[in-house]
Structure formats: C-alpha cells, structure tokens
Amino acid sequence: xxxxxxxxxxxxxxxxxxxxxxxxxxxxxxxxxxxxxxxxxxxxxxxxxxxxxxxxxxxxxxxxxx
Length: 66
What we know:
By secondary structure, the chain is an all-alpha fold. It has helices spanning 3-28, 35-65.
C-alpha cells in the first residue's frame, strides 16, 4: 500500500472513531425513560465502545508496523 493510501486509511479510521464517540456522547446525555431503556443504552454503549476500541487498536497496530 502506498504511503498516501495508508495515511488516508488512517485518517478514515480516526475520523470514524471520533464520530462514534461524539455521537455516543450526545446520546448518553439523554435520560432513559425505563429500566429497559437504560439496559439497552448500556448495551449500545458497550457496542460503540467495542467499535472505537477496534478502530484504535488497528490504528495503533498499523503505526507500530511502520
């Protein structure tokens, strides 16, 4: 992969991680209306956290190879 393509891919991963985190920050400010809503928010939060983790882990791994 060319250096330019590698940088572009890196920027895309970081932008996606940032967007997920910002979106969840907004959603997290909403109070759940019920216990079921709270449980679903926690599940969604863990799924978003896993997505951000994967993106950042991949980014760190790629930078360590370079």
